[in-house]
């Protein structure tokens, strides 16, 4: 079991089972919403339980995805493609160790000019 929450604790979540290796997205939408780049793990919806869901708000950022955040503290927690059977959960929102390692950087062609990716993790331009 892995537990996590937003900054103020109004939205909490539990993931049953091991976490998939996370990906870091450097696209402009993820950078603008998170303030840097977004790292998340894909969690099958049947393994994700939410508490305080009434405090969760959704922003439809494109025709294919919505982004979930706490209405009180603004923490960006979920990247959710309704046409898929999983939800991406923010790595930074987990409490304690996740037992994972970053697997890939994506949309690096859009990364900010203020940082360098030199961690040896595979990169995709898009």
TrEMBL record:
<dbReference type="GO" id="GO:0016846">
    <property type="term" value="F:carbon-sulfur lyase activity"/>
</dbReference>
<dbReference type="InterPro" id="IPR006913">
    <property type="entry name" value="CENP-V/GFA"/>
</dbReference>
<feature type="domain" description="CENP-V/GFA">
    <location>
        <begin position="2"/>
        <end position="116"/>
    </location>
</feature>
<dbReference type="GO" id="GO:0046872">
    <property type="term" value="F:metal ion binding"/>
</dbReference>
<keyword id="KW-0479">Metal-binding</keyword>
<comment type="similarity">
    <text>Belongs to the Gfa family.</text>
</comment>
<protein>
    <submittedName>
        <fullName>GFA family protein</fullName>
    </submittedName>
</protein>
<keyword id="KW-0862">Zinc</keyword>
<dbReference type="Pfam" id="PF04828">
    <property type="entry name" value="GFA"/>
</dbReference>
<dbReference type="InterPro" id="IPR011057">
    <property type="entry name" value="Mss4-like_sf"/>
</dbReference>
<keyword id="KW-0456">Lyase</keyword>
């Amino acid at each position: 079991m892995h537990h996590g929450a937003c900054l103020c604790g109004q939205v909490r979540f539990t993931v049953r089972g091991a976490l998939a290796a996370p990906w870091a997205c450097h696209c402009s939408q993820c950078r603008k919403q998170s303030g840097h780049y977004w790292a998340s793990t894909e969690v099958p919806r049947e393994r994700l339980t939410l508490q305080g869901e009434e405090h969760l708000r959704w922003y439809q950022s494109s025709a294919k995805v919505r982004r979930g955040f706490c209405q009180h503290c603004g923490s960006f927690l979920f990247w959710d493609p309704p046409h898929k059977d999983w939800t991406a959960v923010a790595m930074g929102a987990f409490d304690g160790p996740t037992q994972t390692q970053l697997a890939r950087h994506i949309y690096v062609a859009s990364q900010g000019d203020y940082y360098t990716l030199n961690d040896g993790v595979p990169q995709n331009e898009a």
